[in-house]
């Protein structure tokens, strides 16, 4: 039978490896910096599609997504990206594992 010390050491290594693989595979997502040659001017974050108008208010330079979205129409958060001189809203559907979106440079955000 394995001693408790060996079991604890194996568990510690396994937990470290899971954490390292999660960090290595983490993704960062944001709005395209331009759309049809026009620069990004604003980013909003929506609980579901922007058409539902369920936009979230940023706090402390971004958004903390503490749980899954509650929208019945789309089970993901969505970035709404607007561009100077354009009425188009480019949408970026965020993967469910995203938990933070923060402003980085001007209107740009980085979600991870």
Q: Provide the β-strand percentage band.
A: 25-35%
Number of domains: 1
Largest sheet: 5 strands, antiparallel
Number of helices: 1
Number of E strands:
8
Average pLDDT score: 74
Residue share in helix? 10-25%
Overall radius of gyration: 19 Å
Can you put this structure into words, describing what you see?
With 112 residues, the chain is of the alpha+beta class. It has one domain. 19% of the residues lie in helices and 32% in strands. The chain has one helix and eight strands. The chain has one helix at residues 4-24; strands at 34-35, 38-47, 55-56, 62-64, 77-83, 89-93, 100-103, 109-111. The strands form two sheets. Strands 1, 2, 3, 5 and 6 form a five-stranded antiparallel β-sheet that branches. The protein has a three-stranded antiparallel β-sheet with strand order 4-7-8, with no helix packed on it. β1 (34-35) and β2 form a beta hairpin.
A few lines on this structure:
The chain contains one helix and eight strands, in the order αββββββββ.
């Amino acid at each position: 039978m394995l001693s408790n010390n060996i079991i604890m050491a194996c568990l510690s290594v396994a937990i470290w490896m899971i954490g390292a693989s999660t960090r290595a595979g983490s993704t960062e997502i944001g709005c395209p910096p331009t759309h049809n040659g026009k620069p990004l001017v604003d980013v909003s974050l929506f609980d579901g599609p922007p058409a539902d108008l369920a936009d979230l208010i940023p706090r402390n330079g971004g958004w903390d997504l503490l749980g899954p979205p509650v929208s019945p129409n789309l089970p993901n958060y969505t970035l709404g990206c607007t561009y100077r001189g354009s009425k188009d809203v480019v949408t970026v559907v965020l993967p469910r594992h995203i938990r933070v979106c923060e402003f980085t440079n001007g209107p740009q955000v980085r979600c991870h």
